[in-house]
């Protein structure tokens, strides 16, 4: 029942980008451009990840940030649909293991430099979300949340099914979920990961 609900939600989110692609199918391909990084980023948060009661060890962890252009007026509209669609950027960052169950990494909110990519004025970047991949020898467990959750500097718990730790012979959704009225009845079937952000000066 829980796995079915997770798969249904995953399919819903998959539909959204598909709809955008359908609207722009008759337009020219999205323009690609090079994005420069800020040589001296200052808005840094340390992200701490603590794994709670995992059924086994993890080999490593990796992080990535999702940056979106925040002022869409700088993006050239598609000639037919009029939709303004821009590329996203996904800079990676290291999650360093500091204890058997704890990793830390640096997340920057000003990592990318703006630029006049379309000739309509400078485009400015905004950190939208952060994604973490936890690796075992045979599987990858994924956790994601909005950048605002890091700025709040409050612990955030996400949950994995114990069965997600091992891939097994059948494919399954290995994405973390928040606690809700449905799955909190089955907490003994989950283990949790706690994420906490802290502004560094």
Overall 3D form: elongated
Low-confidence stretches: 12-16
Distance between the termini: 45 Å
Largest sheet: 5 strands, antiparallel
* String of helices and strands: HEEEEEEEHEE
- What amount of the residues lies in strands? 25-35%
Number of strands: 9
The count of helical stretches stands at 2
Indicate the radius of gyration in whole angstroms.
Answer: 19 Å
The class by helix and strand makeup works out as mainly beta
**Mean pLDDT score, rounded?**
85
Name the helicity range: 10-25%
Q: For the largest sheet, list the strands in their spatial order.
A: 4-5-1-9-8
Report on this model:
The chain has 201 residues and is mainly beta. It has 2 helices and 9 strands; from the N terminus they run αβββββββαββ. The protein has a 5-stranded antiparallel beta sheet with strand order 4-5-1-9-8. A hairpin with a 2-residue loop joins strand 4 and strand 5. The radius of gyration is 19 Å and the shape is elongated.
């Amino acid at each position: 029942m829980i796995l079915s609900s997770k798969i249904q939600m995953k399919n819903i989110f998959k539909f959204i980008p598909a709809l955008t692609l359908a609207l722009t199918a008759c337009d020219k391909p999205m323009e690609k451009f090079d994005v420069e990084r800020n040589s001296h980023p200052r808005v840094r948060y340390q992200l701490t990840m603590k794994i709670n009661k995992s059924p086994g060890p993890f080999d490593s962890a990796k992080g990535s940030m999702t940056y979106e252009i925040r002022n869409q007026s700088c993006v050239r509209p598609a000639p037919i649909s009029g939709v303004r669609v821009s590329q996203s950027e996904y800079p990676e960052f290291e999650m360093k293991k500091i204890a058997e169950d704890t990793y830390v990494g640096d997340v920057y909110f000003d990592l990318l430099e703006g630029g006049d990519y379309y000739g309509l004025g400078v485009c400015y970047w905004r950190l939208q979300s952060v994604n973490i991949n936890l690796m075992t020898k045979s599987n990858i467990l994924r956790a994601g949340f909005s950048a605002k959750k890091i700025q709040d500097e409050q612990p955030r718990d996400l949950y994995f099914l114990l069965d997600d730790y091992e891939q097994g012979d059948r494919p399954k959704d290995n994405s973390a979920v928040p606690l809700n009225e449905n799955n909190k009845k089955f907490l003994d079937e989950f283990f949790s990961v706690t994420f906490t952000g802290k502004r560094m000066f």
